[in-house]
TrEMBL record, chain A:
InterPro entries linked to this entry: CTU1-like_ATP-bd, Rossmann-like_a/b/a_fold, TilS/TtcA_N, tRNA_thiolation_TtcA_Ctu1
Basic and acidic residues biased stretches: 311-321
Span list, region Disordered: 288-321
A single Gene Ontology CC term: cytosolic tRNA wobble base thiouridylase complex
UniProt name for this protein: tRNA(Ile)-lysidine/2-thiocytidine synthase N-terminal domain-containing protein
Database matches in CDD domains: CTU1-like
UniProt keyword list: ATP-binding, Cytoplasm, Nucleotide-binding, RNA-binding, Transferase, tRNA processing, tRNA-binding
Biased composition (Polar residues): 294-307
Keyword flag tRNA-binding: yes
Origin: domain of life: Eukaryota
PANTHER family listed in its UniProt record: ATPASES OF THE PP SUPERFAMILY-RELATED (PTHR11807), CYTOPLASMIC TRNA 2-THIOLATION PROTEIN 1 (PTHR11807:SF12)
UniProt source species: Stephania cephalantha
From TrEMBL, chain B:
Family annotation (InterPro entries): Beta-grasp_dom_sf (IPR012675), Mopterin_synth/thiamin_S_b (IPR016155), Urm1 (IPR015221)
Functional description taken from the UniProt entry: Acts as a sulfur carrier required for 2-thiolation of mcm(5)S(2)U at tRNA wobble positions of cytosolic tRNA(Lys), tRNA(Glu) and tRNA(Gln). Serves as sulfur donor in tRNA 2-thiolation reaction by being thiocarboxylated (-COSH) at its C-terminus by MOCS3. The sulfur is then transferred to tRNA to form 2-thiolation of mcm(5)S(2)U. Also acts as a ubiquitin-like protein (UBL) that is covalently conjugated via an isopeptide bond to lysine residues of target proteins.
Organism, as annotated: Stephania yunnanensis
Pfam annotation, one family: Urm1
GO biological process, alphabetically ordered: protein urmylation; tRNA thio-modification; tRNA wobble uridine modification
Identification of the protein by name: Ubiquitin-related modifier 1 homolog
Record-level GO cellular component terms: cytosol
Family: Belongs to the URM1 family.
Cross-link Glycyl lysine isopeptide (Gly-Lys) (interchain with K-? in acceptor proteins) residue location(s): G99
C-alpha cells in the first residue's frame, strides 16, 4: 500500500446531492440520489411524516399500537413513530404490542429486544401469547403438524392475536412495519396464489376500516434498504437495538422465493445501457449474445469502475405503488 | 493489509456468530490493488463456515446484502471494483431477515 494513501480515509464518493457539502454515504434506491448521512435521516423521517399526513393516518388524541416483533422493520417503526409524534405533535398515545408465538430460541430472544425497546423509547409494552390465547404454543403446534403448513397456523393466529392484543390495549389503530419490498412480495404471492381479493387490498395503506381496529402501514413507500441502513448510519449517535434471526420454523416459507426473485430482478441491467456502453467503449459486441450464466454469474456488463456506475444509474427495480 | 469486517442482519451466523473480524488480507501479487472482488473471495474461503449461498451469488454478494465501505454505500464507490486501503472498515448487512 502506498503510504500517501494510508494516512487518511480519502472519500471515494461524490458530495451529497442535497446539501452539496458533505460526502455522499448512500445511494437511495427509490430516487438513485447520492445523499449524505445527515440528509438521509432528515429525508427518511420527513418522507414518513409526509405519508402519515397525506394519508391522514391518525387523528390527534388517538391511541396507537405499534406491532413490534423486535425485528428491524418494527423496531425502526417504533423509533420513528415516537420521534415524529414528538417532533410534529401528532398527539398520539403510543404502545408496543408483541405476540409471543412460543418459539424457543427465536421469539423468546426477540421479545427481549422488544423489552429493551420499551425502556429505550419509553413506550408501554403488551405481550399476548399463543399459549394464553389458544392453549397451544408454536413449538407444540410444530410437534403436532411438522414443518409443513406450520406457517399457516402461525400467520392466522398472529393476525387474530394482534387484533385481540389491540382490543386489550383499547387502541384506535394498529401500525405495522410492512415496507415497500414486503408489499411487492405480497403482490407477487397473491398473483401466484390467484388470490384476487387479497391482491386488490394488499397495497392499501390502511385496511380493516370497517372492522374494530384499522391497521396501517406507514412504511408502505419505504424501501427495505433504507430501513436496514438507517440504524447503521445512526451508529455514532444511537444504535437501534434489533433482533435479526430468521424464524427457525420457516426455512421453506413460500415468501422467501418471491423475495429472492424480486431481489434478483432489481439487479438486472437495462439492455439499452449495456449496448450503448459497448459502443462507447469500442466493444460493440458487449451486449450481444448470451454471456450471462443461468444464475447470473457472468454478466454482460463491463466490470470497470466507470462502466458499472453508468449501468447502475439505469438500474431497474424502482418499484412504485 | 489490515481490515475490519463486520457482519450483521444475520450474516454473522455464517461465520460462527462472530460479528466483528479483524483480519489481515494479502494484496494481490504485483502492483495490483486489493478490490472488493478480491476481498469477497477471501471472505468466502476464510470466514464463511456454512451456507456460502446466503452470502454470495456468483462473484458478488447475494442480492439483498448491503455493503458499506468506511460507512459509505459501496454502490457509490464502484461495488466490486472498490479498491481497499489499510485499516478500511467493511460492513455486510443482510436485509433478508424477518422484521
Amino acid at each position: 500500500m502506498e503510504e500517501s494513501e494510508a494516512t487518511t480515509k480519502i472519500p471515494r464518493s461524490r458530495q451529497c446531492c442535497i446539501c452539496k457539502d458533505r460526502r455522499a454515504a448512500l445511494k437511495r434506491p427509490k430516487t438513485l440520489e447520492q445523499i449524505c448521512r445527515e440528509c438521509f435521516y432528515a429525508a427518511f423521517e420527513e418522507e414518513i411524516h409526509k405519508v402519515i399526513v397525506d394519508n391522514q393516518l391518525f387523528k390527534p388524541g388517538e391511541r396507537v399500537a405499534v406491532g413490534a416483533s423486535g425485528g428491524k422493520d418494527s423496531t425502526v417503526l417504533a423509533y420513528v413513530m415516537s420521534e415524529l409524534n414528538r417532533r410534529h405533535q401528532y398527539g398520539l398515545e403510543l404502545f408496543l404490542l408483541s405476540v409471543d408465538e412460543g418459539i424457543t430460541g427465536y421469539r423468546d430472544d426477540s421479545l427481549e429486544t422488544v423489552k429493551r425497546n420499551e425502556i429505550q423509547y419509553g413506550l408501554p409494552l403488551k405481550i399476548v401469547s399463543y399459549k394464553d390465547l389458544y392453549g397451544w404454543s408454536m413449538d407444540e403446534i410444530v410437534k403436532a403438524i411438522g414443518l409443513k403448513n406450520n406457517c399457516t397456523f402461525c400467520g392466522v393466529f398472529r393476525r387474530q392475536a394482534l387484533d385481540r392484543g389491540a382490543a386489550l390495549l383499547e387502541v384506535d389503530k394498529l401500525v405495522t412495519g410492512h415496507n415497500a419490498d414486503d408489499i411487492a412480495e405480497t403482490v407477487l404471492l397473491n398473483i401466484l396464489r390467484g388470490d384476487i381479493a387479497r391482491l386488490g387490498r394488499c397495497t392499501s395503506i390502511t385496511t380493516g376500516e370497517d372492522g374494530k381496529i384499522p391497521r396501517c402501514k406507514p412504511f408502505k413507500y419505504t424501501y427495505e434498504k433504507e430501513i436496514v441502513i438507517y440504524p447503521y448510519t445512526y451508529a455514532y449517535f444511537k444504535k437501534l437495538d434489533y433482533f435479526s434471526t430468521e424464524c427457525i420454523y420457516s426455512p421453506n416459507a413460500y415468501r422467501g422465493f418471491a423475495r429472492e426473485f424480486i431481489k434478483d430482478l432489481e439487479r438486472k441491467w437495462c439492455k439499452a445501457c449495456v449496448l450503448l456502453e459497448g459502443l462507447n467503449r469500442g466493444l460493440p459486441k458487449l451486449g450481444i449474445g448470451r454471456t450471462r450464466g443461468r444464475n447470473g454469474q457472468q454478466r454482460d456488463v463491463p466490470q470497470t469502475n466507470g462502466g458499472m456506475k453508468n449501468m447502475e444509474s439505469k438500474q431497474r427495480g424502482t418499484l412504485d405503488f | 493489509m489490515h481490515l475490519t469486517l463486520e457482519f450483521g442482519g444475520g450474516l454473522e451466523l455464517l461465520c460462527q456468530s462472530v460479528k466483528i473480524h479483524n483480519v489481515e488480507v494479502d494484496s494481490p501479487a504485483g502492483d495490483e490493488k486489493l478490490t472488493m472482488k478480491d476481498l469477497l473471495s477471501w471472505v468466502r474461503s476464510n470466514l464463511i463456515k456454512e451456507r456460502p449461498e446466503m452470502f454470495m451469488k456468483g462473484d458478488s454478494v447475494r442480492p439483498g446484502v448491503l455493503v458499506l465501505v468506511n460507512d459509505c454505500d459501496w454502490e457509490l464507490s464502484g461495488q466490486l471494483d472498490t479498491t481497499l486501503e489499510e485499516k478500511d472498515v467493511i460492513v455486510f448487512i443482510s436485509t433478508l431477515h424477518g422484521g
